[in-house]
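Record format v2
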Amino acid sequence: MAEWTDPKRVYVLVCGERLRGDDAAAVLAAEMLPADALALAEVIEVGLLSVEALLDVPEGVAAIVADTAIGIAPGEVVVLPLENVARSTGRGAALASSHSLPPDQVLALAEALRGSLPRGAFVGIGGAEFGFGEGLSAPVSAALPAFVAVLADEIRRLATD
Amino acid sequence: MPKADIATGEHNFEVVGIARVEGEGTLRLRISDGEVSEARLSIFEAPRYFEKLVVGRTPDEVVDIVTRICGICPVAYQSGASMAFEHLFEVEIDPQVKALRKLFYWGEWIESHALHVYMLHAPDFLGYESAIAMARDHKPVVEQALRLKRTGNDLMKLIGGRAIHPVSMRVGGFSHTPTRAQIEALREPLTEALALSQATLKLVGTFKAPKFERDPLYVAIKHPTEYGLSEGRIVSNDGIDVPLWGWRDAFHEEQHEGTNALHARTTDGRTYMLGPSARVSLNADQLHPLAAEALRASGLAEQIARNPYWAIAARSVELIHSSAAALDIVDSYQEPARPFTPWAPRGGEAGWGTEAPRGICWHHYDVDDNGRIAAAQIIAPTGQNQGMIEQDLTAFAPQVLSLPHAEATVRLEQLIRSYDPCISCATHFLKIEIERD
């Protein structure tokens, strides 16, 4: 893992695809972050969360995984400790692809390889539409400012913890 | 869930969720008197209509659209489409651009094969339910996989603009080509990837595979002087020999009940096998010398040719080949004078096939006189392998029926995973149902 000299910083791993409806919510939210939160964060658009991205989070640096989620109401914003998401393996999203692991399994694999996960959180917003094309569904669009605010608050909290 | 009616001797098995395959489907086995009477791999992920999405589009738009068919083999889709149009429009490609395209493709092979060998298939051989469980006991092995995968991804990102759904390929070449210095920077990671690939084959050589032998019809691209990738002819081990645009001369697609993926057969109705085992068996003499030597030293050539479980070794051989071939391109790369050759569209039929990591991916487009797509046919490798997977399962299943249900399921899943099926490409979670009458 890389050296990191600014302990205040937080890695924000932004997941999603701009061209798949609500899957773009975290990408759009990251672009709307206020300057003070951005100054504390290293924002990295990862598309799909990968083990490599988590292994690249320097020791001692916090991480936020921001993504659209299913299984919660569209537009609902949630904050979950990363460890809790990793512990949900087998109870959360099913493995539907050989090409990529679902986030809970990515986190669990990163934990196995790192020895521990970075301190941090999953910040998610419930999505409704994931079809081809740009544009958020009405409930996600309406909740985007709240998603941005929660993401910014989490960056500030982790940067000063 | 296994169900058994002891009084009548009828048994029904249903296994939900084959892990570590791409997409959503079900395998149903019907067994009567200890014999498999039916093996059906049903793919019921919704069709994705890419062949319709491209109608009315221009060739360059098609190249951008088809990359979205698959997150792990986008280069195959882009290459097949680009090269089909270039063949129709008689576009001469700069030799350095051609070399760059091969390098791009080797990146996809490295990334895809590393993922499959280590994360998807090795857990079967080492007795783990997943790569996560394997990582707890074999951390260096998983780290090795991630380093290999990263090299492939970095290579694709450099040339394609991004690793998943790259954006730089276009008809005639690329929209942008890397500098000599950027390509030179790949030397160190590729040198490590080559060493890791050689270690991978040695590791795989220690695995024990289930005993299962057959002599399939193998189909792959063969080139006169190099390991078949994107130029040459489509050949088989029994005499099929057609040009890359002539897939329809030797094969056809057909609809099968209960699946959204079209199967492919030879024109005389036979199933066939594509992918690493087919390629290594048909083109072993054209492997990079380092890969050929590693294959010889492994002593696994015969197993690769006859036992589908040893596809993991074929992939490992191809990891060596693609890393070594990529390094050769790094050695010789010179920046092309221009990233792409200009071209003019014309009406006609455009067809081409290239070797995706899982096997030949074939494209055909009818182009109207305005240079727009009138019709399209895109044939993914998994649809072509589907019949062979079912045939292998039918032949292999009796060996495992006496085993406890869970163990039998693992062996059957492992066989399916040998093909690295990409169900999403084919149309798509796999569910296994075994019915014993």
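DSSP finds six helices and five strands in chain A.
Residues 138-160 of chain A form the longest helix (23 residues).
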